[in-house]
Structures are given as structure tokens and as C-alpha cells.
Amino acid sequence: MLYRISALWARVEIALAAGLALAVTLLILLNVVTRNMGAALFWVDELAIYAMAWMTFLGASAAIHFGHSVAITLVTDVLPTPVRRAVTIGVDIVILGFALAMVWFCWIWFAPLDLMRHGFDTGAFQAATFNFIYAEPTTTLGIAKSWVWLVMWAFSLGMVLHGLANLATHLRGRVTA
Predict the structure, then answer these.
(1) pLDDT 10s digit of each residue in the chain, 177 long?
(2) What is the C-alpha separation between 97 and 159, in angstroms, rounded?
(3) Fewer beta carbons below 10 Å: N end or C end of the chain?
(4) Of 115, 160, 165, 138, which Cα lies nearest the Cα of 7?
(5) What is the spatial distance between Cα 14 and Cα 17, in angstroms, rounded to a whole number?
(6) How many Å separate Cα 74 from the centre of its chain?
(7) Cα angle at 106 between 103 and 112, to 5 degrees?
(8) Taken in order 103, 109, 111, 115, is the CA torsion positive or negative?
(9) In whole angstroms, what is the distance from residue 137 CA to residue 147 CA?
């Protein structure tokens, strides 16, 4: 069941990443056309950068599910199957540990409980915590960067889901890497 949920979420991540790849392409094309006409839209550059960042993080999370991450298999390819399985489980544990650390870092960075304690008043939150995550605007779009940085939550939680699913699958011995 966990693996099915992971697979579904990975397909959603890939679909969103593909849509964002198309958006980046169209935004850059728009930028080329408007600059060529002498009427550059400066917000297009920034939006293309943010779309590419989101695309990258969503694709990286999905790559964990599909096992398409960069790997050097020179040693593991020659190992006996039981040892290879143990190494695969070890890698799954490291990935899950990294993902859980990322969730913890997002929790500290966004400090949602502190924000709630201050009644979602970002000014009071900043004064009490010296955390300005919700105050910094994007350069040309004028929105809070915290909206852009939400991709870190999606990336981290997606990696936890995929890491747990892969670990559970490999512990059951269904897949040998």
C-alpha cells in the first residue's frame, strides 16, 4: 500500500515537473521575444528560475521512487546478492535519514508553531524569533519568497514517502538492486 501511494505521488511529481519544464521553456521564449522587441519583462527571468527550481526538486524526489538517482554501481554489481541487498537497504536508510533531516530543517526554518503562537502576525513573529522567512519578497514578482520555498516541504515530505516505501519494499525482499 505504501509503495502504491509513493508511486502515485511520484507520478504527480513527474507531471508537475513536466508542466514546469514546459513553463520554463515558454517563459524563456517569451523573454527572448520581448527583449528582441525592446520591451523586456524582467519578472519573466525570475519566474523561470523559480519554475526551474520547483521542477528540479520535484523531479529529484520522484527519482528516489523510481531509483533513477545517480549511482556508481561498480562495487555493488559484483557483490553477492545478499550483500547487494544489504547495501541497498543501507542506502535506503541513508536516504530516509536525509529526508527526515530535511523535514526537520524545514520545520525549524518555517517555524509554523511559532507563527501560529503569534497569531500569524509576521511582524510579531519576526520580532520574537528574528526569523524573516515570511518577510523577504521576491525581486520582481513581489510575492513572499516563503511561497517559493514551499518546494522544500514538498521535496522533503516526498523523499520521506519514497524512502519509506523503498525501504519497506527492500526489507520484504521484493526487489533486489
Answers:
(1) 999 999 999 999 999 999 999 999 999 999 999 999 999 898 999 999 999 999 999 999 999 999 887 777 788 888 898 899 998 999 999 999 999 999 999 999 999 999 999 999 999 999 999 999 999 999 999 999 999 999 999 999 999 999 999 999 999 986 544
(2) 10
(3) N
(4) 165
(5) 5
(6) 28
(7) 115
(8) negative
(9) 10
Q: SS3 of 137, please?
A: strand
pTM, whole model, 2 decimals?
0.88
Which sign does the torsion angle of CA 7, 13, 17, 20 carry? Answer: positive
Residue the block writes with cell 516541504: 153
Q: In which residue are the cell numbers 519514497 written? A: 162
Q: CA nearest 31: which of 19, 46, 20, 50?
A: 46
The C-alpha atoms of residue 150 and residue 156 are separated, in whole angstroms, by 10
Q: What is each CA distance from 112 to 104, 148, 150, in whole angstroms?
A: 12, 16, 12
**125 backbone dihedrals φ, ψ, rounded to 5°:** -60, -45
**Count of positions (residues) in the chain:** 177
Return all residues near 34 (Cβ < 8 A) that are at least 6 apart.
40, 41, 44
Place of cell 516526498: 158
